[in-house]
Specification:
Length: 463
């Protein structure tokens, strides 16, 4: 920055301040009298601070009450400053208590001062101290490879009293989320990712928590979620050792996703009256059964790679009048579908893919009169489409892919007058028969406005 910029004492906007190394550039002390700055301030090249104990304090950030967002950045790969000097710089850069956003990148110190946050790639830090930012609403901690726990002192008051969002990501040594935390003032943890040493997790009641994601906590064996009055979305992903899950009252939870939790066997769920979407991937069949047994009005069910699933559980039957979307992928032992599958009177989207034990499309599907989208994929044994497909009078989109033995389409395709999109891919025999004008099955589908054969559009000529 240019020298003497600090004389602009009425300056209100300075989004970026870069610390140089030459004698004719402005130092960090240029910020000392700029107390009218407001909004966002980003300070780059902090490794160029010369006298760490003095210069950072001269920036006088604590008097800049109108700054709402502060970014502090040390350049990656620079070694012009020791870890001790970086710690001294950080101590002197304490902001005003009105700060709402804080981003810290590339910090090389071993510990943080007690005023701190967004932390990113501060790989030397081992302990996170108690923070004093009463107006902080969003806190992100990422790539803190040595942090084992977050300290807390209950005598200081509530733990982030204004916090609404906390994101933890790539903290492989984290063993505890906090120590000595008063249960009267719990934080919300909407985002916990790749904390490999975290073995158990019991969150306190979180009145402000609306979304929670827990991902890549490979040693996590148990998870207990207390009553969360406004929680609407819960994602639990890639927790390979997770064995038990407790979900207490979450009256507004509308979306639940559990992916790659193969050891999960115990799911205790209280009432989830607003749950609309359930997505399960690489879990056991009993997890699906336990969740579907809970009273709610399910609208969307996505089932992926549940190896021990041989048929859809009877617990799904209670949702026949509300289910609108059903997708089943990669359930290699799924051999039959229940007779009541045709009673899904609200179903408008159906996808079945990579379920090789299913011999054919069950005839019960002909009763799905409001079905609008049908996807059939990776079905090596499917040789024909049934004649009753013409009964799907509301069908608008049909996708057929990776069905190598499917050789032709039935004449009843002509009856699908509402069909406006047809996609066929990786079905060599069928693709050849459906070529525009010359294909033997082209007359059966010529009425469809949009046709894609192996990613080539086959539109009807303009008339």
């Amino acid at each position: 920055m240019p020298c003497r910029i600090g004389e602009l004492t009425f300056l209100e906007s300075l989004p970026l301040f870069v610390i140089g190394t030459g004698s004719k550039v402005g130092r960090l002390s240029e910020l000392k009298r700029l107390n009218n700055l407001r909004g966002k301030l980003r300070i780059e090249k902090l490794e160029n601070v010369r006298d760490a104990n003095v210069e950072s304090g001269e920036a006088n950030l604590g008097e800049k009450q109108y700054i709402e967002s502060l970014e502090l950045e040390w350049s990656y790969g620079e070694e012009a400053q020791s870890g001790e000097d970086a710690e001294s710089v950080m101590v002197g850069l304490r902001p005003h208590r009105n700060l709402k956003e804080l981003f810290i990148t590339g910090y090389g110190g071993r510990v943080f001062p007690s005023w701190l946050i967004n932390l990113d790639s501060c790989s030397g830090c081992q302990i996170l101290p108690p923070f004093e930012l009463p107006h902080l609403k969003s806190l992100k901690l990422r790539h803190l490879k040595k942090v084992e726990y977050m300290d807390y002192c209950s005598s200081r008051g509530p733990f982030f009293p204004s916090l609404e969002y906390l994101k933890l990501k790539y903290m492989p040594k984290l063993k505890e989320l906090w120590r000595d935390l008063s249960p009267t003032h719990p934080p919300s943890f909407p985002y916990i990712r790749y904390c490999g040493d975290l073995a158990s997790l019991e969150l306190h009641s979180s009145p402000l928590l609306s979304s929670l994601e827990i991902k890549g906590c490979c040693k996590l064996t148990s998870l207990r979620l207390p009553p969360s009055p406004i929680l609407s979305q819960l994602d639990i992903l890639n927790c390979g050792d997770l064995a038990s899950l407790e979900l207490h009252s979450s009256p507004l939870l509308s979306s639940l996703k559990i992916f790659d939790c193969p050891k999960l066997t115990s799911v205790q769920v209280s009432s989830l009256p607003c749950l609309k979407a359930l997505k399960l991937h690489k879990v056991r069949e009993e997890v699906l059964q336990q969740l579907l047994a809970t009273p709610f009005s399910l609208e969307s069910l996505y089932i992926f790679d549940i190896d021990d699933l041989m048929t859809l559980p009877d617990e799904l039957h209670q949702h026949v009048s509300t289910l609108q979307t059903l997708e089943i992928w990669g359930c290699t032992h799924l051999a039959t579908l229940p007779h009541w599958i045709g009673n899904l009177t609200s179903l408008n989207r159906l996808c079945i893919s990579s379920c090789h034990q299913l011999p054919s499309l069950p005839e019960e599907f002909r009763s799905l009169r409001i079905l609008k989208s049908l996807t059939i994929g990776d079905w090596s044994g499917l040789t024909t489409l049934p004649d009753w497909i013409g009964s799907l009078s509301s069908l608008e989109h049909l996708q057929i892919r990776e069905c190598p033995k499917l050789t032709s389409l039935p004449e009843e395709m002509r009856s699908l007058t509402t069909l406006h999109g047809l996609e066929i891919s990786h079905c060599p025999h069928l693709s050849e028969r459906c070529q525009r004008e010359n294909g033997e099955d082209w007359p059966k589908i010529a009425h469809v406005p949009d046709i894609i054969i192996d990613w080539d559009w086959c539109r009807k000529p303009f008339q």
